[in-house]
Amino acid sequence: MGFKDQKSFKPAGHHAHSTSHGVGPLEQKARVRGFWYYLVLVATAGAFAWVPFLHAALRLKTAKARRFALIFGGLDALMYVLLAITPRSDQGQTVDGPISTVGGLLALGVVIVGCLMVTPLRRMVYDGVPGDDQGQLANTDPAVRAALAARARRDETRKLAADDPLLARELHVGRPDLGGSYDDGGLVDLNGAPAPVIAEVCGIPLDVAGTIVDTRSRRGTPFTSVDEVLVVADLPVSAWDRIRDRAVLIP
């Protein structure tokens, strides 16, 4: 039986059935993820508003997210220019005037509008909620619905693994080669799975998966983050997104 016949590739209906009676505790906890977007906007008075929008653009790879990143990047650049040309007193303090007033209003507007605009992007990145274009497809295409449900299931399972790694290990999370009845949405444990399994689940060449396993063996200690795997193993950038989408790390 191939890996795709194992529990990692169960249809989305399994997940839908398990959550149809309400929102579970893992889903409730997941809702707080991504609130650093708002923290950056507010704490920096909009000066680094481009950061959460750039992060969303890199994760979602949609034209809308890229457009927002460019817009807020431009607004922040304008704020930096206004700050640079604002008159200052002999003590180095800014002098009230038209430029400082415009700059202050611009910063306030960037914070308010940025918080409103970043909200749907945050939900798409961290909660697996589809955007407008994805939502229309999800309502009509079973394959899209299944893919989005599996993505949400993976996020939920990663949270479970972080909270209770012993339980995750017992459920064989990220180990389709070991079988098991738990549906993890199609994850693979980079700390334990063999190279052929990593290659199959992530959809990457076997030699790239082999590099992960070789690096893991040389270290002698478990990886602690996916980014650590990507950098320490010196993996090709072209494989990063696929690995991030499927990876889980069980200590």
UniProtKB/TrEMBL annotation:
Keywords: Membrane, Transmembrane, Transmembrane helix. It comes from the Bacteria. The chain crosses the membrane at residues 35-56, 68-86, 98-118. InterPro entries: RuvA_2-like (IPR010994). Residues 1-22 are annotated as: Disordered. This is DNA uptake protein ComE-like DNA-binding protein. It comes from Amycolatopsis thermophila.
